[in-house]
Amino acid sequence: MFAAEEVSWLFRNVWLIPALPALSFVLILFFGKRLPFKGAEIGIASVVVAFSLAVLTTFAWIGNIQSAESHSEEAIFLEGPDGEQTPIVLTAEEAGEARGAPIITEVEWFSIGPDANKVILGTEGNSDAGHDEDGHSDDEDEDGHSDDEDAGHDDDEEEGAGFGGDDNVVDVAFAEDGGTVAEAHGDRFSISIGTLVDGQSVMMLFVVTFISLLVHVYSTDYVKGDRRFTHYFAFLSLFTSAMLFMVLSTSTMQLIVGWELVGVCSFALIGHWWEEKANSDAALKAFLTNRVGDIGLLIGMSILYFAAGRTFSIPRINELAVNGTIPKGTLTIAAVCLMAAVMSKSGQFILHTWLPDAMAGPTPVSALIHAATMVVAGVYMIGRLYPVFFIGFGIAGSSINLMAFIGGLTTVGGGALAFVQKDIKKVLAYSTVSQLGYMVLALGMGAYTAGMFHLFTHAFFKACLFLGAGSVSHACHHSFDMKADMGGLRKYMPKTFWTFMIGSGALAGIPPLAGFWSKDEILVGAGVWPNTGGNGTYYLPFVFGMITAAMTAAYMARTIWLTFFGEYRGHDEPHESGARITTPLIILAGMAVVVGFLNMPSGFVKFFGAPEGLAHRFEDWVEPAGVSTFVTSDNGFTHAKPSLSLAIVATLLALTAGGAVVAYYRALYAKDSKATEYTDGVMSRIPGLRAGHKFLEEKYYLDHLYTGAIAGGTKGPLARATDWFNQNVLDGIVNGVGKLSVGLGNFIYNIIDQKAIDGVVNGSGNSASGAGQFLRGMQTGQVRQYATLMFGATAVVAAIFIFAV
Amino acid sequence: MMALLAQQTEAVIETAWIPNAFFFVIAAVMVLAALKMVSTKNVVHAALYLLIVLSGVAAVYIFLGAEFAAATQILVYLGAIMVLLLFGVMLTRAKLGAETDLDHDQRWIGALVGASLLAVMSYSLWDAFGGDKLPADPTPQDAPTGVKNTQLVADEIFSTYLVSFEVLSVLLLAALIGAVVVARRD
Amino acid sequence: MFLNQFLLLAAVLFCIGVYGVLVRKNGVLVLMSIELILNAVNINLVAFSAFNQNIDGQVFALFIIAVAAAEVGVGLAIVLLIYRNRRSIDVAEANLLKG
Amino acid sequence: MQSFLENWGITAMVFAPLVGALIMMLIPEREEGTHKLIALVSTVVAGGLGALLMLDFDYAKAGEMQFGRDMRWIEIINARYAVGLDGMSLPLVALTLFVVPLVIIYSWDHIPSPGNAKAFLMLILVLHTGMIGTFVARDLVLFFVFFEVVLLPMYFMIGVWGGEKRLYASIKFFLFTLFGSAFMLVAFLALYNLTGGESFNIERLAELVQSEGLSTRTQVLLFGGMFLGFGIKVPMFPFHTWLPDAHTQAPTQGSVILAAVLLKLGTYGFIRIAIPILPEGAVEWAPWIGLLAVIGIIYGALGCLAQTDMKRLIAFSSVAHMGYVMLGIATLTDFGINAAIFGMVAHGLITGLLFFLAGSIKERYHTLEIKRLGGLLVQAPKMGWVLGITTMASLGLPGLAGFWGEFPAILASYNPAPGLNQTVFRVYMVVAAIGTVLAAAYLLWLLQRTAFGTPSEEFIDDPEITDMQWNEWVAWVPMLIMVIVLGFLPGLLFDISNDKVSALGEIFQALGN
Question: Which residues of D touch A108 (CB under 8 A)?
Answer without folding.
Answer: 491
